[in-house]
Amino acid sequence: MDRGKQGEPHPAVRSVTGRAPAYSGPVPALDPAAGDVLRPAQDTPTPAPAGAPAPVRTSGPLAGPSGPPAGVGSPAPPAAALRVRGLRKAYGPREVVRDLDLTAAAGRITAVLGPNGAGKTTTVECCEGLRRPDGGTVEVLGLDRAAPGAAARLRERVGVMLQDGGLPMAPRAGAVLDHVAALHTDPVDTGGLLARLGLTDVRGTPVRRLSGGQRQRLALAVAVAGRPELVFLDEPSAGLDPQSRLAVWDLLRELRAAGTSIVLTTHLMTEAEELADHVVVIDDGRVIAEGTPAELTGGSQVVVSPPPGTAPEDVRGALEALPGVEVAVAAGLVRVSVAGPLDAGALSAVTAALVAAGLGAAGVTVHRRTLEDTFLDLTGRRLREEDR
């Protein structure tokens, strides 16, 4: 994969993040004979007339070289890209979001996790403007979502990738992306972005003939086509092969490095651990835990198998005197939880304490606690039947 010169983002990312000249041509014509028929919603923005001055972005990752210098006529960036307070939403008698508070920092990746039916999808849809909350406030890029005119002002600053992609099936993949990009005043280099996501060869293929993974990558490209300051991504790497998933992750990291704020919902714990600066866990319509991945995983475990004839309680007693550890017995094994990373010194201290007590061990293994461990501890192992 061509990543450009070392230290520089890929050319397609430069176009996404505002480091390439803005598109100034007309809206690409669609070819009905080829199936390129789009029916945008009535509130979809239209391009400026020929010769009209294009609006200039003066802040955020979409700012172009023609914008004013920093601090000259530029509004101060919001303290948070997204701020939700006391959010409530019910479907009939069923309350699915209950006084929920959530903050996503500007220029960071915030992962929203939760089992099916936890309320995370409804929460994010309220933030995207797709659902009207019953109570509370949603502030996006410093604007109250419910304020008059806020939706129109946010439309070009916010990108959305829906769970099902939300793509029209008949048009060609490239036509969809070109059309969406041309609806923005400062769009991406669509050819470069397609290449970045491995979609160049299917540019002329109707969306309905794309594989699931190709549609997923196209939906991501559409979400960032207007170089949004904030982008909501719902399961961006679901169904992707490992190579495609890594390409998506690389793109998201580079967007973050350029200042784009990302709110990511995912069921892949490894994705959240790899990408997120901050993780929010939602269950039963409320935030039940949040923090950095390191804060939520909370260290490692040394698992000791007692030797034959030795009671696990005796092993626990020998290890409880060690500083900075928590010791528990479960299923005949002694688990020693260590805060933070487990180094050689901590492991040596465990084995030395066993030897000093004359106990020894039948086996000693090391387990690094993962975000999935924490998630299951918080939400349980019961299967959930629906998402909301």
From TrEMBL:
Q: How does it sit in the membrane?
A: Peripheral membrane protein
User: Which stretches make up the ABC transporter domain?
Assistant: 82-309
Q: Does the keyword tRNA-binding apply?
A: no
**What residue ranges are annotated as transmembrane?**
none
Does the record carry tRNA processing as a key word? no
Q: Which GO terms describe its molecular function?
A: ATP binding; ATP hydrolysis activity
Compartments, as annotated in UniProt: Cell membrane
* Name of the protein in its database record: ABC-2 type transport system ATP-binding protein
Species for this entry = Georgenia muralis
